[in-house]
Amino acid sequence: MPRHILIAGGSRGIGAAMVRRFSRQGDLTAFTYLKSEQEAQTLARETGALAYPCDSRDEAQVKDTCRRVLSLFHTLDALVVNAGTALYRVLEDTSLPEWEDQLSIHLTGAFLFARETLPALREKQGAAVFVSSVWGQTGGSAETAYSAAKAGLIGLTRALAKEAAPLVRVNCIAPGMIHTDMLSRFSSDEQEDLLAQIPLERFGEPAEVAAAAAFLCSPDARYITGQVLAVNGGQYI
Ligand code: NDP
Questions:
Q1: In this structure, is residue 237 part of a structural domain?
Q2: 56 Cβ closer than 6 Å to some ligand 1 atom
Q3: What is the pTM of this model?
Q4: Which of 82, 88, 147, 208 for a ligand 1 pocket mutation test, highest count of atoms within 8 Å of Cβ?
Q5: Number of domain units in the chain
Q6: What residues are annotated to the active site?
């Protein structure tokens, strides 16, 4: 029986690798995107997954998208909330709209998707996975708003894991430095500095984060909830 998966933020990078991974293993997969219409449609054609434009920050759009996906699938085995953008800004230069936007995309988006899909996940004894970051665990200098939002996701994971048990498992992935557009915004000097902090001596690949999401959503993880799974090459142990 194919499982049904919803991925928030699947058009590029780690999210696209997740769409490929779940589709390849035979799961019926729906994903959302914001700006990358072209990439989303190409990925949908390549994988057979269903693409929905949806701004994770917008309550009405998230509600409508979840309603459309659930009325098509009639069921849901797993939700993965991956959508995110980075903000490289020291605290004193961060405006209130920038601060609120970071909380909104990372934290409010996860709250909205979880709230709209929990009844369906409960029916299937399913799983939710949120994508945090190593900076949510350790704090990233000049990424204060991003780090605060990602740390909030870890709190959300732990609280919701207790609240949604025993029917729904809730976990979180904390990637380190992963080869995507987000990482390519660092200069080569900055990338070398980051690389020097990684015991496995390389950046991670999106497929390696997707593999962690696939595991956490699988029956192999049926006794795992409320955890933060680091996919970081040992950057933070
Ligand atoms: P990318 O910038 O490559 O992709 C981000 C994805 O999120 C895109 O699909 C984008 O869609 C989507 N997205 C962004 N904003 C919104 C929004 N408001 N509504 C819906 N979708 C949105 O990032 P990565 O793949 O690198 O990152 C994925 C996740 O992993 C993020 O949460 C990020 O914080 C986290 N992460 C990444 C790390 C890394 O090193 N790459 C390290 C640690 C954590 P579109 O293009 O259509 O706008």
A1: no
A2: yes
A3: 0.98
A4: 82
A5: 1
A6: 146
CA distances from residue 20 to 88, 117, 189, 237 in whole angstroms, order as listed: 29, 22, 32, 29
Q: Which of 215, 201, 228, 213 is nearest to 7 (CA)?
A: 213
**Per-residue pLDDT tens over the stretch 58-114:** 999 999 999 999 999 999 999 999 999 999 999 999 999 999 999 999 999 999 999
| Residue at 21 is within a domain | yes
Would 52 be classed as within a structural domain?
A: yes
What was the pLDDT predicted at 183? Answer: 87
Is 183 close to ligand 1, i.e. is its CB under 6 Å away? yes
**Gap from CA of 85 to ligand 1 centroid (Å):** 5
Say if 236 falls within a structural domain.
no
* pLDDT tens profile 179-225: 999 888 889 999 999 999 999 999 999 999 999 999 999 999 999 99
Rg of the chain (C-alpha set): 17
Which CATH number goes with the domain that contains 224?
3.40.50.720
Domain range holding 17? 4-231
* H or E stretch at 4: strand 4-8
